[in-house]
Amino acid sequence: MVAGYRVGMHFLTSALRLLEPRVDDDLIDRLHYLYSSTIILMFALLVSAKQYVGHPIECFVPAQFTRAMEQYTENYCWVQNTYWVPFQDLIPHRLDDRERRQIGYYQWVPFVLALAALMFYMPATVWRTMAAQSGLNVSLVLQLACQDQNLDPLIRDRNVDVIVRHVDDALKYQRDFGSKQKQSFPAATLRPTVLMSPRSI
């Protein structure tokens, strides 16, 4: 029981760590990837809990229906699209009138909301992944640049030197890596290859 609790708490803290703001963003970035995606995801969970746990749809059924018949009718209305009729109108008897008033979007609302939350979060994830691959530690550079101790000229000069060396090393690495890629690409494409047919084996 205690081990299951610890595993659950580990997963919860890992999930909450994803929501932690970072140094390499500003309020607008956080508004997009953190706040908007969290609010939309909470709404998606709320709507899906209502749909898949509670009663997603309430239908007016005749009074002589038993509870099982009412449940069957509501399940049928949920799976088959429903249609709306104002209270003062009569229920249309023609099928084409009913199909014209169909409402078919409500089953997809939680999935669309979850997709929207993912789309708000994806640009920040792509940015972090690409920034980590560049060789430039953006988080470290911004941490050093935004320190309160930078008011002291000696500490500021030391931090500027560290940032300059780091950026210079990252750019040198990218230049060297890019020139190696350019040199190895023609050699790899022009290297003679032996093609073997099934008869020669």
Mean pLDDT: 77
**Count of DSSP helices?**
7
Order of helices and strands: HHHEHEHHH
Strand order of the largest sheet: 1-2
**Residue ranges: pLDDT <50 for 5 or more in a row?**
187-201
Radius of gyration: 30 Å
Report how far apart the termini are.
62 Å
Approximately how much beta-strand content do the residues carry?
under 5%
Number of strands: 2
Q: Which class of secondary structure composition applies to the elements? A: mainly alpha
User: Which term fits the overall shape?
Assistant: elongated
Q: Could you explain the architecture of this structure?
A:
This protein is mostly helical and 201 residues long. It has a domain at 135-182. It is 66% helix and 2% strand. It contains seven helices and two strands. The protein has a two-stranded antiparallel ribbon. The chain is elongated and about 85 Å long. Residues 187-201 have low confidence and may be disordered. One of its GO terms (biological process) is monoatomic ion transmembrane transport.
Question: What would the keywords be for this entry?
Answer:
single chain, 201 residues, mainly alpha, two-stranded antiparallel sheet, elongated, gap junction, transmembrane helix, cell junction, Innexin, cell membrane
Provide a concise account of the structure shown.
The protein is mostly helical and 201 residues long.
